[in-house]
Amino acid sequence: MKVVVKKIDGKKLALISAICTGLLSLIFIPVFLLMNSINHVQMPSWFKVLIILVPIVYFVMGYILTRLAVGVFNIIVKRLKGFDIEIEDNNCECKN
Question: Residues 64-79: what's their mean pLDDT?
């Protein structure tokens, strides 16, 4: 079955993208802590703040940049009168 996509909900997609990037940025926390333990040097206070701010900054920037990208995408798709995608319903027992 073919469907024409004419617009994507920017708020929801941006929120999902921001959550994903924020969660993925948590990977850096163990790396930062490991670097600190390997060097045997006391971590400066600004570095501790940076560890906390990285996921927050990634979340905010991920949201903003995704909203901008989806906005541009929706403008382009509107001018092109949408685009086709083909989907298949696996639960449908009808034959075409």
Answer: 94
